[in-house]
Amino acid sequence: MLTNLAPAGDAASPWLIHRIDEQPISLIGTPARLGPVARPLRDLLAKHPLIVPTRETSLRSTFDALVARQEVAPILAAEVDDMAMIRLLARADAGLAVIPAIVVRDEMQAGTLVEAARLEGISEVFFAVTQARRFPNALLTEVLARLIQLNVGRVMRGGRWFNASPRKSEITVVACHGNGPTGR
To answer: Could you tell me where the DSSP H helices lie in the chain?
Structure first.
């Protein structure tokens, strides 16, 4: 299963959580809102309405920590649980969007949206969740091994992260039946 929210792990958990990629997060807005002069991050966060992910996401919790470190009381224009909706609100100039720049790549290339600031230390992380199996899926083993090589993968076991070196017996597709890992 692919997800952007790692399921909780403990010693009894059968899940292997492979970190396969991440996307940096930025503040994105319209050129009309941002103007021609670059502004400090603190000013952007304090003086513009923000379009943010909902509180249930790890992205939001890291963003809230950044705002607290900046000692800013943000003006929230919207809390949204969907990247496509954040994209639409940013295009409509409802505020500055907290979003990976890749999501609005087309708008940035067209000049309708611009990156106001890269939010250092904040990224959206993507995971592949698998389970140890006696008879592994050979194709999945190969795909995960390549992803891990390309993206400096790490794997979680028993609630702790380890450098990934997958063995064939550890990798298979996980079907979620309500009591397994969840994600978006």
So the answer is: 31-34, 41-47, 58-69, 83-91, 105-110, 138-151
pLDDT above 60 (res 61): yes
What are the tokens at 48?
């513009």
Instruction: Using the structure block, give the residue that is written with the tokens 């009381």.
Output: 73
Minimal CA–CA distance to 147: which of 131, 124, 171, 169? 171
pTM comes to 0.71
Where is pLDDT greater, at 6 or 73?
73
The angle formed by the CA atoms of residues 153, 108 and 65, to the nearest 5 degrees, is 55
Q: What SS3 state is found at 85?
A: helix
**Strand duo 160-163 + 2-3: pairing:** unpaired
